[in-house]
Design goal:
Layout (H helix, E strand, L loop, with lengths): L16 H5 L25 E10 L2 E15 L7 E10 L8 E8 L7 E9 L3 H7 L3 E9 L4 E8 L6 E12 L2 E12 L4 E13 L2 E10 L6 E10 L2
Antiparallel strand pairs: 1-2, 1-12, 2-3, 3-4, 4-5, 5-6, 6-7, 7-8, 8-9, 9-10, 10-11, 11-12
């Protein structure tokens, strides 16, 4: 688990890049880095509300709203089991019903890897899945190496959407506030291409954070840009 408290109460990731450059549409938000999920979750009984936009040279700007919350079990244990549940959707007219996501995370040893399993992009009906894409199931491991955290995992999705996922993040202090530098890479286009991203999240105030990143596929696609605001409802 990350040492910085806000990493447990802010929404750190979005499986969004694929929407701009791949047949795979938007996946429901799951805490992580830029375009990949990690073992991070929203904090215990904390609500996180988000508003974000993505745009690129070959796609129109799309706006999304989302929320997520976390729940910790076995809190008296040195290794509590953490759960996250969330929902998001596009605000553009005619873009379909909201999508759901859920994950479970566990870190057996304080200095060992954290592990999680989850599923995102959950639509309720066949018609909604035809528009939004199939559910996206994943496993991720995260390990601190002192100067940074490393993340690796694999995701399963029907119709050729399986993908390897890799990431790294490093936390620093800027103007007495936490800044997390983040980079990740994910397979796209049915495994024939990779999309890498670089960005950051800055905690502007106790209940407010700002995120931004750029995503660049390796082949035949322009870059896309994402900007996101997080409102954190916590004590």
């Amino acid at each position: 688990m990350h040492n910085y408290a806000y990493m447990q109460i802010s929404a750190l990731a979005l499986l969004l890049g694929a929407a701009a450059f791949s047949p795979v549409p938007l996946l429901a938000s799951s805490s992580g880095l830029n375009n990949i999920p990690t073992t991070d979750t929203a904090g215990n009984r904390v609500l996180v509300f988000q508003d974000y936009v993505t745009s690129g040279a070959q796609t129109t700007a799309n706006n999304f709203v989302a929320f997520k919350t976390g729940w910790s079990f076995l809190q008296n244990s040195t290794s509590p089991l953490r759960m996250e549940f969330g929902m998001d959707g596009r605000t553009n007219p005619g873009d379909g019903a909201p999508l759901l996501q859920v994950k479970f995370a566990y870190q057996p040893e304080a200095k060992g890897p954290a592990l999680c399993v989850g599923i995102a992009n959950i639509a309720a009906t066949p018609d909604q899945r035809a528009r939004a894409g199939q559910p996206y199931s994943y496993f991720v491991a995260s390990q601190s190496i002192g100067v940074a955290r490393l993340h690796a995992g694999y995701a399963l999705q029907s119709f050729g959407g399986n993908s390897a996922i890799l990431g790294i993040d490093r936390s620093v202090r800027v103007a007495k506030r936490d800044l997390v530098l983040r980079g990740d890479a994910i397979q796209i286009d049915r495994g024939a291409n990779w999309a890498a991203s670089a960005g950051a999240i800055y905690v502007v105030a106790k209940h407010f954070a700002f995120e931004a990143w750029v995503t660049q596929p390796a082949h035949n696609r322009p870059a896309s840009f994402t900007f996101k605001l997080d409102l954190i409802a916590a004590n």
